[in-house]
Amino acid sequence: MTKNQILRNALNSGKLFTAMAAHNPLSAKLAEQAGFGGIWGSGFELSASYAVPDANILSMGTHLEMMRAMASIVSIPIIADIDTGFGNAVNVHYIVPQYEAAGASAIVMEDKTFPKDTSLRANGRQELVRIEEFQGKIAAAAASRKDKDFVVIARVEALIAGLGQEEATKRGLAYEEAGADAILIHSKQKTPDEILAFVHAWPGKVPLVLVPTAYPALTEADISALGKVGVVIYGNHAIRAAVGAMQKVFAQIRRDGGIREVDAELPTVGEIIGLQGDEAMRRVEKRFLR
């Protein structure tokens, strides 16, 4: 099966699909090795890796080329986080085939205004576009894809914006009607109660997508038992793990005045060379160098 078919079949199967965030090919490769079903091409993580806010500061081209780079390394589907679609429905109609050609198997687009503010920022500016406007963007995305198995996911930010369950459900159903293959419902509450209420009441036919960053107590077993969720995304754990590890190592080197103590705790240079695909390169050398 193609990567697109793998993701499409997972959504149709009713079995929970897991996706881990990544911000470069190395983190994507590590996620695949760990056993995740797919990669979340996270705008938040990529912005963080450039040390800029997650507020549409990076260009579409920067994000697109990172998706292409990751897709060339991993054999599992990539779900590209395209924020608000980098413009209106005309922009969306243009860029979705670009992401498809780059090797992504899905896009997730959210119903906030451009430029966006990151969802979990305290006191963030969470402004939503009109339902009809976002329906047009979803319809444009669905119409422009070349492969029918390419997945279009609509992200509902009504709970993030404090607009309540009724508005969130209204928007989710409207986006399903416009052609979304799944609905990502997001929440910044520290417990899963708000999300669980939405899931239990969800009357739509398409599966839901959850990102349990703010409510980490909800396990995959809990999510599977709900029966309406097709994908769980771990949205920022790669960059948080990387930052935490680097802060710890850098601080120890400064305390110790050298790398003697910390060196034994780190992956070896040989392990990194292995992750770089050195063995495959040597096979190419042996075969083709004259």
Task: List its salient traits.
single chain, 290 residues, alpha/beta, TIM Barrel, 2 domains, 8-stranded parallel beta barrel, 47% helix, ICL/PEPM, pyruvate, Pyrv/PenolPyrv_kinase-like_dom, Phosphonopyruvate hydrolase
How does the SSE layout of this entry go?
Elements lengths: L2 H11 L3 E6 L2 H10 L3 E4 L1 H7 L10 H12 L6 E4 L7 H13 L4 E5 L20 H14 L6 E6 L7 H15 L3 E4 L7 H9 L6 E3 L9 H7 L2 E6 L2 H20 L12 H7 L2 H11 L2
Parallel strand pairs: 1-2, 1-8, 2-3, 3-4, 4-5, 5-6, 6-7, 7-8
Helix pairs in contact: 2-4, 5-6, 6-7
3D structure, described in words:
The chain has 290 residues and is α/β, with parallel strands linked by helices. The chain has 2 domains: 3-236, Phosphoenolpyruvate-binding domains (TIM Barrel, Alpha-Beta Barrel); 243-288, no CATH class. Helices cover 47% and strands 13% of the residues. The protein has helices at residues 3-13, 25-34, 43-49, 60-71, 89-101, 131-144, 164-178, 193-201, 220-226, 237-256, 269-275, 278-288; strands at 17-22, 38-41, 78-81, 106-110, 151-156, 182-185, 208-210, 229-234. Helix 7 links the parallel strand 5 (151-156) and strand 6. The longest helix is centred in the last third of the chain and has 20 residues, at 237-256. 40% of the residues are buried. It comes from Bordetella genomosp. 4. Belongs to the isocitrate lyase/PEP mutase superfamily. PEP mutase family.
Short description:
The protein has helices at residues 3-13, 25-34, 43-49, 60-71, 89-101, 131-144, 164-178, 193-201, 220-226, 237-256, 269-275, 278-288; strands spanning 17-22, 38-41, 78-81, 106-110, 151-156, 182-185, 208-210, 229-234. The chain is α/β, with parallel strands linked by helices and 290 residues long.
